[in-house]
Amino acid sequence: MPKVASVTMECTGWSEGIGDVVIEQRNLGVQILHLQIENNEGPLWDQIGIVERPGGAVTVPVNERGEYGLIEVYRAIVAREGAKFPLDGDYSALGRTSVEFPRGFPKGVEAAEDTAVRETLEEVGHPAISAPVKIGEYNQNTTFYPFSIPIFKLKLDTSRSSHLSPEQNEWVGRLKWVTMKQLSGLIASGEIFCGFTLSAYAHMVAAQD
Asked: Disulfide-capable partner of 182 in 13, 27, 101, 178 (CB 3.0 to 4.6 Å)?
């Protein structure tokens, strides 16, 4: 299991940006920007903007029984109550697994539909049997993120399996297949708290009405 720690050596991929770009990761296509909001009278406030290369996707895997596939993913998020702010270099309260639908960044100029198929195969281990179907979009924080991420449903052939091959910079655990009722229960109990997954669930519920 990974853990969160202070950076003690040069991190691969991240570098200082130029101009309004504070820092960027070109492999992932992520930039942290310093932006200014203004009107005709002048500046109002400044803030960060987090820009991700278009082509990322969230996927709701569906098996032959109509169940939905959830995976356990390690995230650098608060693991216990009472975590102090600011952290001041103490990251002992960060790091836990999260139960989520698969999601990921595009590789190069990969389209979102292709990202959905590839990421699901890498993280779930079963190939798609049909093209992904877009069910909505999600913006994790409209204050800071200019772009929304599309959400797809993807039917899988669970009779065929491949070796899991998540990216080097992520830790993916076991796969769990659940019914819609079980998914609702996991959300109600607080076991699922991932915003991407909650948004996908909301889109699925809305489509049933």
From this structure: 178
